[in-house]
Amino acid sequence: xxxxxxxxxxxxxxxxxxxxxxxxxPQTVTIANGIKLLGAMECMNNTLFIILNNTSxxxxxxxxxxxxxxPNSMLGDLILTAAKSATTxxxxxxxxxxxxxxxxIDIDFSSNFAGNIYAIGxxxxx
Length: 126
Hints:
Layout: E1 4-7, E2 12-13, E3 20-21, E4 27-28, E5 35-38, E6 48-54, E7 60-64, E8 78-82, E9 86-92, E10 105-109, E11 115-120
Parallel strand pairs: 1-5
Antiparallel strand pairs: 2-3, 4-11, 5-10, 6-9, 6-11, 7-8, 7-10
């Protein structure tokens, strides 16, 4: 399957400020393709958020696919619910569970999902 690729969006934080700003660019989800989230390990732990806007009239599931790079991938896939007609934020505590050898996370969607996705995080080293 050729997945649609999105990159984690990182806010710019100035040294003199304690806040950052970011204009979000969402990606429309094509169910048949799924999503490849690039650069997952570039985020500090606890700062990776995947945001889903489910415009469907039914609850949908998303599957964060188990990775192939780190030992904790043995925990397997993680299936979560995206509520109907709602925006859902998923915080990834430790992305290593889902990271592939190319550094990306693969995400699948149930056939009744409709909407957008984007991911934000804080860059390692800031």
